[in-house]
Every structure is written in C-alpha cells, then in structure tokens.
Amino acid sequence: MKRGGRSLVSSPPAFSNDAKKLRVSTISNATGLQTEDAETEDDLETSGTDEDDDLTVCGPSTVATSSFTKRVEYKLSKVEADDLSKKKWKYTWEVPAADISNCKWVGTGECFLKDDDLSSNYGLKQKLYKHWLDVYKTSGGNDFHSSKQRWFFSLCNSYRDILHGEKKPFYHKGLEEDSNIMDAYLMHSLNHIFRTRDLVRKNNAKIDKHQMNGKEEILPGDNFLDQGFTRPKILILLPLRSIALRVIERLIQLTPANSKVNVEHIDRFYKDFGSEEVSSDEEEEQSKNAKTKKPSKPSDHQSLFKGDTRDDFMIGIKFTRKTIKLYGDFYSSDIIVASPLELMTKFGKAEKNKDTDYLSSIEVVIIDHADVISLQNWSFLTSVVERLNHIPSKQHGTNVMRIRPWYLDGFARFYRQTIILGYYLNPDMNALFNHHCVNYQGKVKSVREHRGVLPKVLSQVRQIYERFDASSIADVDDARLEYFEKKVFPKIKDSDQGGIMLFASSYFEFVRLRNFLKSQNASFCLLGDYTNQKDISRARVWFFEGKRKIMLYTERIHFYRRYKIRGIRNLIIYSLPERKEFYYEIVNMLEGSDDLACTVLFSQYDKLQSCEFHRSICSSQ
Q: Where in this chain does the record put each UTP25 C-terminal domain (predicted)?
C-alpha cells in the first residue's frame, strides 16, 4: 500500500504535507483498515471506561505530566537525527542518588529531576495513580512522594534512555530495592499503553462524530497521526522464566481492578512458568532442612535459581478495557515479555518470510537483570535490539493514513526509550547503551564509587597483581595471552607443584587458553561452559587427586554451578570476574596452609574493560 506516492515497504519515505491531511472515508474503520485499538465487541463495553480521563488532566501541568504528550508531538528534524547518529554524548549534570550510598545520577541535556510537583500525579493517568497509591499504602508505605519507586518512575517517565548498573537484585538481599524499581517500570509501561490507547480511541470518536454529521471535507493537522506500524509498544527482556513469572504477576497486580475483571489463560501461564507460592508445610520442611544441613550453594545462587530456570519463553499481553489477555497474538499484543534466546529462535524460524514485524513499533524496551543475561549470550540481546524499529516487510492491517511521521521517516529508533537494569556494568552493557540507544530525549545513568572486596578474602593468601602492557584496548586480549605464554606459563611448566586453577572470565579466553595448553602438551582438565556432567565429575576427581596439574575454569560455569573445587593450591586469575563476589569466592577455595598464592593479570585498560576491577581490587587497596 502506498501513501503520498511512496511505498510503505521500501526505504523510509519522506512524509509529505498532502499525506498529513486525513479523509474521513480513509481513516474510518468502515474502510476495512484496522487500527491499533481494534478489539472484539465484548471489549468495547462502556462500563469501566476511562475515556473521560483526558491525557493532560492528571493534576497540575508539569514537566512530568506532559512528557507523554510532548514526546508524541515532537517533530525530529533530519539535522537532529544525523547528529544523534554520531553517538556522541556529553553528560552535563549530576544529582546524588539519595537511596544508594556513594552513587549519583548523571545525564545529558537539561536536568529534569527537580521538576516534580507534590500535588501532581507524576504524569500517571488518574486511575493508575490512585491504584498504585492504594497498593503502596496497603504494603505499609506512608510517604509515596519520597519513595524509591516513585522517584525511579520519574526517571522512566522522562522517556530518556536509562542505564542503572547499581540495582541490588532480589537474590542478593535486595528484594525491596528490586521490587521498587520493577514497580516503577511496570507502572511506566501501563501508563504508556493506556495513554496510547486513549489517544487512539479519542481520535476514533472524533472521526466517527465527523462522519455522522455527514461531513466529507478533509480533517487537517497531525492530531490524528497516532499509530505505529504494529500494535506492540513495550518489550520486556528477561533472562529466566522464574523472573518472568515474578514480573508478569506484579504487572497484573498493578493493573487497576476495573481493567482486569478477567485475566485470560492465567492457568496456562502458571503451568508454563510455575508458581512462587509455597505451602506452609513446604516452608516448614525447608526451614528444618536449612537448620540441619548447611547449603552447598551460596544464598544468592539458591534464590536466583529457585523455580523454573529455563531461558526460552515469549508471551504477548493485550490490555482491553476489562480484560488482560495472556498469550495474545504478537501483532495484537501491547506488551511482549521474552528472553533474548527465544526471540533469536523466532528470528531463525522467520528468516524465510522475515516475519518479525511485531518489533517494528516498539517504543519502550526494558532489559532487566542484564547482568544475568550477560552470562547467557549477550550477542543474542544485541541482535534483538538491532532488529527493533525497522520498516516492516508487510502491511499488517494498520491504517497507514494514521501512522506517525517519525515511523515513516525511519526515525522510530530516535523515539525509542531503552532502560537497562543490572547488578553491575560491563563493557557490553556500556557499548549497548552508547551505540544502540539514540533517544532524542537524552540519557541518564548511575555512577558509583564502590567498596572493595579484599576484606572478604578469608584465607591467608599471597595476592600478587601482575600488570602487562597493551598498545590499545583492541590489543588487550592478544597482549594478555602473550604475557601468560612468556611470563606465567614457564613458571607453571617448570614447577612440580599441582593444584593450579586457571580462571578465565569469558568463553573466548577459555578457548584460547585451552588451545595453548594443548599445544604445550600440558597436564590439564576442563570445567567449561559446555562440559558435560560426566566429564566435570571426572575432571574434579583428577584435579583433587593430582592426576591433572591444571584446571581451566570459567566465570559462566561458576555462575551456574557454584562448585566448591577441592585441591587448589595456586590460583591464577587470567582475567578478573565481572561479578565482584566471585573474586573472593574463588580465592577462598584455596586449600592448605603452605604458600597459598593468587596471581591476577591486568592491564591499564582493565578499568575500561572490567567495571568490576575497581570494585574488586582498587577500592580495597
């Protein structure tokens, strides 16, 4: 289908002035063209409607209140788009993060965090604000304005890109903080969906009224350009089904009662994702076992991997006036909750017909627990983000006469908000934020000075830090391996001592070390990302009994298994772990009382490559 003489599926068309004028005969649903809010007759019952909740009537007019309207009405110029494409960001302001010690928020553009109005609804729709306030008070809260969840909602409601790598997760004794941030981004998602829906419905009502009056003239202006190519607007990316269960359950709880009279397919949902409910008998039994038996895994591991830990899931969620529909068709859903792995699987299946257009109109992306995703396969996440906001390959029943100009101009990625949340930052997260998040509204990120972890090393261990030189950050990997080959390995080879663990933080480093050790006919065993259980058990026995001199171990297998490796006398940390607690966990596995040693290799670029370097070492020293 063409608009203004330009094909919808070709290169991004220029949005002509003539195309901005909408004819009633074209935009009416009677034409057979489908709008984003198309629903069944049952969905359109008048009871429970909130059409009288005007988009701009949510308390006093403030920056926060009008952020949705300002965003959809902003017209990005070609010059601005070209400037954003250069990906050069200058952080011009900072504000202390009152709820996080030694932490501050820094941002581009003008500071907006001091513009909240005590008497406003913070940009929320009236019914959402009232329901959230009720939920907050029911849970024991008494000062909503000063609450962490309200404050983080203001960040989200600014529609800026957000990078928060200081979020204490629920599995690290951070349940309250994690839940507050989750509530904030879920309310932001609901607010965005409901406001988008109301805008479309109000325009439909105006068009219907215009047509009923028998008027044939053209309706002028951009006010009726209110849709994208497809309906889905929110994409939430999570690592595990158990976490998706937690997020979707809370999403349902935060939805006002009159909008969730029915929740379709809830039984199927619990069957697929499990339930966090534990009976009192089970809790009592678990408590008894905890007292009589010391757990073999750290508490954070037990909490994270409780429940369904599969990483293949994708579910569409549609909101109608009275119903939440789980397992909706992706093209008719408002929110898609998925793992990067499952989306990559969908991409592979859709490669022939390129049927991934449901990602073409995503306006808010939330990547929660990015640190866990980084220990799965970060390249999958990057590929998903790269697939967002492309011009669709097909016309999916959308009324093209109501598509917003910035979609047709190929500017959708400049309007997309991306929120990245994690326990820590690494180079991959920073690269995603710097190179794939080009929101015209700007960026906000958290910056923190960290306490070190050396005091948590319990063993009396000599900790030696050996620095190697690299000409550039691109040469660090080669320089690290060369230093190991020439300076470290000869000492190992000439020594009769066994019990040497060689720790690598990435699978790429693991492969390079494995190949080198093979070339030297070294006595070693492997505990890698893809080692099967039988080989793991055999390797652990061989290493403990001294039948293998070296054990090659990766951060990823430690994250998933948390093995207590016995027989370690000498630890060589080829590259620092990204998770700070892994440093002391691994060092504390050293056994014996004679001349225990830990050697750490690092370069001047490790501060850039491993954000945990300062957390783990420098701040302690």
A: 455-609
Answer whether 237's CB lies under 8 Å from 382's CB: no
Element (H, E) at 337: strand 335-338
**Letter for the amino acid at 235?**
L
Same fold, 73-275+307-448 and 454-618: yes
Closest CA to 581 of 295, 297, 177, 244: 297
Element containing residue 580 per DSSP (H, E)? helix 580-587
3-state SS, 32-94, equals CCECCCCCCCHHHCCCCCCCCCCCCCCCCCCCCCCHHHHHHHCCCCHHHHHHHHCCCCCEEEE
The single-letter DSSP state of residue 20 is G
Q: Per residue in 376-423, pLDDT tens? A: 999 999 999 999 999 998 888 888 889 999 999 999 999 999 999 999
Q: What is the fold, at CATH topology level, of the domain defined by 73-275+307-448?
A: Rossmann fold (3.40.50)
Q: What is the pTM of this model?
A: 0.87
Collapsing DSSP states into helix, strand and coil, what is residue 422? coil
Whether the CB-CB separation of 144 and 184 falls below 8 Å is answered with: no
CA 413, CA 390: separation in Å to the nearest integer? Answer: 8
pLDDT in tens, 492-501: 988 888 999 9
Could you list the beta-strand ranges (E) of 397-485: 417-421, 443-448, 462-467
Give the CATH architecture of domain 454-618.
3-Layer(aba) Sandwich (3.40)
Mean pLDDT value across the chain: 84
Cα 522 from chain centroid (whole Å): 41
Number of H helices and E strands in the chain, helices first, is 24, 19
Exposure string of 161-182, with b = 16+ CB inside 10 Å and e = fewer, is bbbbbbbebbbbebeebbbbbb
Cα 128 from chain centre: 23
615: helix, strand or coil: helix
Q: How far is CA 276 from the centre of its chain?
A: 22
Domain layout of the chain by residue ranges: 73-275+307-448, 454-618
φ and ψ of 85, to 5 deg: -65, -20
Query: What is the block-wise mean pLDDT of the chain (621 residues), using blocks of 10 residues?
Result: 37 39 39 48 43 39 63 93 94 87 90 65 89 92 84 94 95 90 97 94 85 65 85 98 98 96 96 68 52 75 94 97 94 97 89 79 98 96 96 85 92 98 93 97 90 75 92 93 96 89 95 97 93 94 96 96 94 93 92 84 77 51 50
